[in-house]
């Protein structure tokens, strides 16, 4: 089968990117630092506006976050989204926005790119509901203790050449009934580190950053995701390949069309 080609939409070259980040914890805080770097690089390369970002998170900084996320002791008690956005605006001269609340379906947003850095399947489901009228990119950054996935897909109905998003490739990851019952926060950093690698959030954020940087710098992609396993030291790409997507149960519009030799009958 002929390999697919994917090109950056023309409007993302001609005007600022409207970006929404959902989750400002472990992966989200690392991802926001990378987005600030990407914004600056885009401007230096002549992009008209870089990134305009809005961050959703209703959580506050706790002592267990220090050292594992991009926060410091002086941040304890403050809203994570506000801390990170204010810091980036101060250092980079941006005008990013913090929404110290959860993103829900009632938001009905249509960004160029939404980045999910969330812990639960229920939260992913809310992202898809909130973006039900959107056709932009959905970059999912999910992880467990020492492994995870980064999937860059496109929202909206199935159409020829559309990159499947995480919910289309992995329906289980947007099924709230499969969320684990024990989602209580850790009571100490030591407890948190026993549950999760200190490195996994940064590893996920790096792969997500690489996808966005490659898409902007080259205008195209050779793969649309990565699977990261720190226990084995392996990172495997998700190729732009209909056959690979079909192995996960996804078929795009073009793949579902039958060749003429199969769809026509002799008379």
Task: Describe the protein in words.
- The relative contact order is 0.16.
- The two termini are 30 Å apart.
- The protein has a single domain (11-263), classed as Rossmann fold (3-Layer(aba) Sandwich), CATH 3.40.50.
- It is built from 10 helices and 8 strands.
- It has 267 residues and is an alpha/beta fold.
CATH top level label: Alpha Beta
**Secondary structure: helix percent:** 25-40%
Number of strands: 8
Total number of domains:
1
The helix/strand order is HEHEHEEHEEHHHEEHHH
Biggest pleated-sheet summary: 8 strands, mixed
Shape descriptor reads globular
CATH-defined architecture = 3-Layer(aba) Sandwich
CATH homolog superfamily = NAD(P)-binding Rossmann-like Domain
In short:
With 267 residues, the chain is α/β, with parallel strands linked by helices. It is 34% helix and 18% strand. The two termini are 30 Å apart.
Properties at a glance:
267 residues; alpha/beta; Rossmann fold; eight-stranded mixed beta sheet; 10 helices; globular; disordered C terminus
């Amino acid at each position: 089968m002929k390999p697919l080609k994917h090109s950056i939409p023309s409007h993302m070259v001609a005007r600022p990117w409207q970006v929404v980040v959902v989750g400002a914890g472990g992966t989200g805080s690392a991802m926001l630092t990378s987005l600030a770097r990407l914004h600056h690089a885009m401007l230096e390369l002549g992009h008209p506006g870089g990134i305009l970002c809005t961050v959703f998170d209703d959580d506050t900084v706790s002592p267990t976050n220090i050292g594992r996320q991009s926060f410091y002791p002086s941040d304890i008690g403050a809203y994570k989204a506000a801390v990170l956005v204010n810091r980036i605006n101060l250092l980079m001269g941006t005008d990013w926005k913090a929404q110290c609340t959860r993103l829900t379906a009632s938001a009905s947003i249509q960004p160029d790119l939404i980045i999910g850095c969330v812990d639960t399947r229920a939260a992913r489901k809310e992202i898809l509901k909130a973006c039900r009228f959107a056709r932009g990119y959905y970059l999912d950054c999910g992880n467990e203790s020492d492994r995870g996935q980064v999937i860059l897909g496109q929202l909206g109905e199935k159409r020829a050449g559309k990159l499947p998003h995480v919910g289309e490739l992995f329906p289980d990851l947007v099924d709230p009934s499969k969320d684990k019952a024990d989602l209580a926060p850790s009571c100490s950093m030591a407890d948190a580190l026993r549950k999760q690698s200190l490195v996994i959030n940064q590893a996920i954020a790096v792969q997500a950053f690489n996808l966005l940087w490659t898409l902007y710098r080259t205008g195209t992609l050779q793969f649309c995701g990565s699977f990261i396993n720190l226990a084995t030291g392996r990172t495997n790409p998700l190729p732009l390949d209909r056959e690979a997507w079909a192995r996960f149960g996804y078929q795009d519009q073009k793949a579902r069309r039958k060749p003429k030799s199969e769809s026509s009958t002799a008379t």
